[in-house]
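Predict structure. Chain length: 124.
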Amino acid sequence: MAEDANVQKVPIAYRKSTQFRVVLAEGCFGGVTNKGMITSTFYNERGALPRASVVTVQPGQPTKEEVTESLDGVVRELEVEVAMDFPTAILYHAWLGDKIDTMRKHFGMSDEDFKKLLPEPNNG
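Prediction complete.
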């Protein structure tokens, strides 16, 4: 097959921005903006940390720490929000689907077991 004379190969260089970082994503939520962007906010979860404590000191030696103020439950720490247009979301969907298929094959996961992990369809 002959190459199209109008087709060009464009080299792409990758550079990390000064804001680049690796984050742990244990979940995400998002939606569609009024301008048609798809957004996903990624978060990680941890137990609530104390807000304040008091340390008992006896002759220069701390002996006991008592938490005086704390939240209960789990904290979802929002790490980053990603916004993308529809064509980019389609490409991301295809890329992520390919990575999921690779992991399914690696772990030998059946279609039936995979379907059990999927959320119910959102019909609203």
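Summary: The beta strands are 27-32, 38-47, 50-58, 61-70, 74-84.
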